[in-house]
Amino acid sequence: MITVLAAIVGALAVATVAGWLLTRASGRVREIHADPGGGPDAGELALSQSGPTIVHFSAPWCGPCDRVRRVVGQVCEDMAEVAHVEIDLDANPATARRFSVLSLPTTLIFDVEGRQRYRASGVPKAADLRSALQPLLA
Q1: Structure pTM?
Q2: Which of 34, 55, 58, 124 would staple 120 via disulfide (CB 3.0–4.6 Å)?
Q3: Which residues does the UniProt record annotate as the domain Thioredoxin (predicted)?
Protein backbone atom coordinates (compact mmCIF):
# COMPACT_ATOMS: atom_id res chain seq x y z
CA MET A 1 0.00 0.00 0.00
CA ILE A 2 2.80 2.42 0.89
CA THR A 3 4.56 1.59 -2.40
CA VAL A 4 1.42 2.49 -4.37
CA LEU A 5 1.02 5.80 -2.52
CA ALA A 6 4.69 6.63 -3.06
CA ALA A 7 4.33 5.88 -6.79
CA ILE A 8 1.24 8.13 -7.02
CA VAL A 9 2.95 10.97 -5.16
CA GLY A 10 6.06 10.55 -7.36
CA ALA A 11 3.98 10.62 -10.55
CA LEU A 12 2.16 13.76 -9.38
CA ALA A 13 5.46 15.45 -8.57
CA VAL A 14 6.90 14.62 -11.99
CA ALA A 15 3.71 15.82 -13.73
CA THR A 16 3.74 19.07 -11.73
CA VAL A 17 7.37 19.80 -12.61
CA ALA A 18 6.78 18.95 -16.29
CA GLY A 19 3.70 21.19 -16.41
CA TRP A 20 5.56 24.03 -14.75
CA LEU A 21 8.44 23.75 -17.25
CA LEU A 22 6.07 23.71 -20.22
CA THR A 23 4.04 26.73 -19.08
CA ARG A 24 7.18 28.63 -18.08
CA ALA A 25 8.40 28.58 -21.70
CA SER A 26 5.00 29.41 -23.19
CA GLY A 27 4.89 32.84 -24.76
CA ARG A 28 8.60 33.55 -24.30
CA VAL A 29 10.08 35.43 -27.26
CA ARG A 30 13.40 33.85 -28.12
CA GLU A 31 16.02 34.96 -30.58
CA ILE A 32 16.72 32.74 -33.59
CA HIS A 33 20.36 32.32 -34.59
CA ALA A 34 20.20 31.17 -38.20
CA ASP A 35 22.84 31.17 -40.88
CA PRO A 36 22.53 34.15 -43.25
CA GLY A 37 20.58 33.03 -46.29
CA GLY A 38 19.72 29.75 -44.57
CA GLY A 39 16.36 28.53 -43.42
CA PRO A 40 13.00 28.52 -45.19
CA ASP A 41 12.15 31.05 -47.88
CA ALA A 42 10.04 33.83 -46.39
CA GLY A 43 9.05 35.21 -49.81
CA GLU A 44 5.53 33.77 -49.63
CA LEU A 45 4.65 35.58 -46.39
CA ALA A 46 4.00 39.09 -47.82
CA LEU A 47 6.54 40.65 -45.47
CA SER A 48 6.91 44.41 -45.23
CA GLN A 49 9.72 45.95 -47.26
CA SER A 50 9.95 49.00 -45.00
CA GLY A 51 10.17 47.49 -41.51
CA PRO A 52 9.98 44.32 -39.44
CA THR A 53 6.98 41.99 -39.75
CA ILE A 54 5.23 39.90 -37.12
CA VAL A 55 3.88 36.67 -38.60
CA HIS A 56 1.25 34.98 -36.47
CA PHE A 57 0.15 31.41 -37.23
CA SER A 58 -3.39 30.71 -36.05
CA ALA A 59 -6.56 28.71 -36.77
CA PRO A 60 -10.29 29.38 -36.23
CA TRP A 61 -10.45 26.69 -33.53
CA CYS A 62 -7.47 28.10 -31.57
CA GLY A 63 -8.68 29.96 -28.47
CA PRO A 64 -5.35 31.56 -27.44
CA CYS A 65 -4.88 32.85 -31.01
CA ASP A 66 -7.45 35.60 -30.29
CA ARG A 67 -5.29 36.84 -27.42
CA VAL A 68 -2.19 36.84 -29.66
CA ARG A 69 -4.15 38.79 -32.28
CA ARG A 70 -5.00 41.45 -29.68
CA VAL A 71 -1.43 41.65 -28.33
CA VAL A 72 0.10 41.88 -31.80
CA GLY A 73 -2.51 44.44 -32.86
CA GLN A 74 -1.67 46.57 -29.83
CA VAL A 75 2.07 46.38 -30.56
CA CYS A 76 1.58 47.23 -34.26
CA GLU A 77 -0.66 50.15 -33.28
CA ASP A 78 2.07 51.52 -30.99
CA MET A 79 4.86 50.83 -33.49
CA ALA A 80 3.59 52.00 -36.88
CA GLU A 81 6.68 50.70 -38.74
CA VAL A 82 5.82 47.10 -37.80
CA ALA A 83 3.60 45.05 -40.12
CA HIS A 84 1.42 42.08 -39.11
CA VAL A 85 0.63 39.01 -41.21
CA GLU A 86 -1.70 36.31 -39.90
CA ILE A 87 -1.54 32.85 -41.49
CA ASP A 88 -4.31 30.29 -41.07
CA LEU A 89 -2.67 26.94 -40.30
CA ASP A 90 -5.62 24.97 -41.73
CA ALA A 91 -5.49 26.85 -45.05
CA ASN A 92 -1.66 26.87 -45.29
CA PRO A 93 -0.28 23.65 -43.77
CA ALA A 94 2.74 23.58 -46.11
CA THR A 95 3.82 27.06 -44.96
CA ALA A 96 3.46 26.01 -41.33
CA ARG A 97 5.60 22.91 -41.98
CA ARG A 98 8.25 25.00 -43.74
CA PHE A 99 8.59 27.20 -40.66
CA SER A 100 8.39 24.24 -38.22
CA VAL A 101 5.14 25.40 -36.60
CA LEU A 102 4.27 22.52 -34.28
CA SER A 103 1.78 24.24 -31.99
CA LEU A 104 -0.61 27.16 -31.99
CA PRO A 105 -0.31 30.00 -31.52
CA THR A 106 3.16 30.53 -32.94
CA THR A 107 4.52 34.01 -33.63
CA LEU A 108 7.57 34.79 -35.76
CA ILE A 109 9.35 38.13 -36.18
CA PHE A 110 11.18 38.90 -39.43
CA ASP A 111 13.56 41.77 -40.08
CA VAL A 112 13.30 44.05 -43.11
CA GLU A 113 15.55 41.69 -45.14
CA GLY A 114 13.11 38.81 -44.59
CA ARG A 115 15.23 36.86 -42.08
CA GLN A 116 13.49 35.23 -39.16
CA ARG A 117 14.91 36.81 -36.01
CA TYR A 118 12.55 35.83 -33.15
CA ARG A 119 10.00 33.15 -32.36
CA ALA A 120 7.39 32.58 -29.65
CA SER A 121 5.07 29.65 -29.01
CA GLY A 122 2.04 30.52 -26.93
CA VAL A 123 0.80 34.02 -26.11
CA PRO A 124 3.70 36.48 -25.99
CA LYS A 125 3.65 39.56 -23.80
CA ALA A 126 3.39 42.91 -25.59
CA ALA A 127 6.49 44.17 -23.75
CA ASP A 128 8.52 41.17 -24.95
CA LEU A 129 7.46 41.77 -28.56
CA ARG A 130 8.36 45.46 -28.28
CA SER A 131 11.78 44.57 -26.83
CA ALA A 132 12.45 42.16 -29.70
CA LEU A 133 11.30 44.66 -32.33
CA GLN A 134 13.21 47.69 -31.00
CA PRO A 135 16.66 46.66 -32.37
CA LEU A 136 15.09 45.79 -35.73
CA LEU A 137 13.74 49.33 -36.10
CA ALA A 138 17.14 51.00 -35.69
Answers
A1: 0.78
A2: 124
A3: 11-138
